Amino acid sequence: MINFYLVLLSVLPLGATIPANTKHGSRFEVFKNGTFFIKNVQLQDRGQYLCTAHNRFGSDRMVITLAVQTEAPRIQPPKTPELSIYLGKTVAFDCLASGKPPAQISWILPDRTFVRDPGTIHTVLSPMSLLQNGTLRIHSANFSSKGDYKCIASNAAGADTVTYQLHVAALPPSISEEVQDTVIIQPDRSMYAHCSAKGEPVSLRNRRYQMGRKDEGDYTCHATNKLGKDERKLSVKLGSNAPQIGLKSQSLVKVKLGESVKLSCQATGEPKPRITWISPHTDVIPPLSDKYRVVDDGTLILKKVTLADEGKYACVARNSAGDDIKNMIVEAELQEPYINGVRGKTTAKLLAVSYQTALLDCRVEGKPEPKVWWLTPYGHSLTPPYLGGRFQVHQNGSLELRGVRKTDAGRYKCFAKNHLGELLEALSQLTPPDQV
Ligand SMILES: *[C@@H]1O[C@H](CO)[C@@H](O)[C@H](O)[C@H]1NC(C)=O
Ligand SMILES: *[C@@H]1O[C@H](CO)[C@@H](O)[C@H](O)[C@H]1NC(C)=O
Ligand SMILES: *[C@@H]1O[C@H](CO)[C@@H](O)[C@H](O)[C@H]1NC(C)=O
Ligand SMILES: *[C@@H]1O[C@H](CO)[C@@H](O)[C@H](O)[C@H]1NC(C)=O
């Protein structure tokens, strides 16, 4: 029978003896056959162990030295230990360390806070958290976030550190609006001068103005941040008076056919507005023509009104400050028909030349527009547009007779009719050619 004893010389409290088949604490055990078993070796387990064996004939002993191998932590060097990020952006600092036993990761923040436990970090700095793998993540950098971030990896064998340097950058401000030196505002209107800026961060002064009458002058919009400033100057001038047309209510003008009519358009404004008239066919009316005259004060005179002149006339008053417009409707009064500009019967004598063309006019006016027809000496009724043989009646009422001969002589009567009256008028006496 052999008895084994293990004596731990330098590690366990002096003289600690573990007999065979006995446990010592949770990690040490000496088996029945004398084998010493250490669970979960730690650095402090290194040292000398003495094994003694004895029986009644004597004893023996053996000293064993246990060395525990360790490896001090080594942090993977960062690719970019110095980093610049824009305000509000996220950044992560890795801290991957090797080591035996595995290194414990902790961080020292720029404000000297020591962080070891993974999770959200509460400091006066911008929000950040420590991840399980040792990475430090800054969620929304602001100017408090800048500085040195030091990662410490440590185990029983030693420690390693890396330091990241963080700069928080911003964009210098720049005002987006185009340069516009002078703005002219209307005396009784208001305006907005916009001023918006790019940059991080940016503060704007004089963002918006509402201009009133007494606000003439120079204005400056300033945009500033830590990196610089930008500004826009704006000069506001009180502008001229936009035109205003008086008496705008009078808009329907009745006129007798064949007569003239005046359409007035009196506009005020500074500088003096220029008057332009637009016809119902939306043409610009020339200042002087057979039909129209525009007087100096802007009045439009419409000469010898016909049904074709009816419609909407627009007077436009314009100067550098703006324009105003007035519409007037010209309407002919109801009128029984009349022919060749004369009320009442007319007789025209026409001398024709053999084999030439004779033109017998019948210009009819009236409202509503009259119906026109001709009656020949032979009792034929011809309505425009008529074209037959040598006879033609034009749209304007004129009867055209080509290649006049003796037998064409006689009385040609033109008739005009609307619901206001029928007029037998315009007796044209065609004298035969051979009587000339
Ligand atoms: C001693 O006993 C243990 C457990 O029974 C065994 O694992 C080990 O191999 C033995 N050692 C020798 C030298 O027989
Ligand atoms: C940065 O953010 C933190 C948390 O939101 C805040 O307490 C601190 O005042 C901020 N610093 C600056 C310079 O804005
Ligand atoms: C650490 O973990 C985060 C999130 O899981 C990951 O994005 C990052 O890449 C990890 N870092 C390293 C060095 O593995
Ligand atoms: C009527 O129209 C015809 C053909 O276009 C023309 O020759 C004639 O001169 C016109 N008559 C009047 C009075 O306008």
UniProtKB/TrEMBL annotation:
Record-level Gene Ontology MF annotations: axon guidance receptor activity
An example Gene Ontology CC term for this record: plasma membrane
Domain Ig-like: 73-163, 243-331, 337-431
Presence of keyword Signal: yes
Family annotation (Pfam families): I-set
Signal peptide: 1-17
InterPro entries membership: Cell_Adh-Cytoskel_Orgn, Ig-like_dom, Ig-like_dom_sf, Ig-like_fold, Ig_I-set, Ig_sub, Ig_sub2
A GO biological process held by the record: synapse organization
SMART domains xref list: IG, IGc2
Keyword vocabulary terms for this entry: Signal
Protein name according to UniProt: Ig-like domain-containing protein
Organism: Poecilia latipinna (sailfin molly)
Lineage of origin: Eukaryota, Metazoa, Chordata, Craniata, Vertebrata
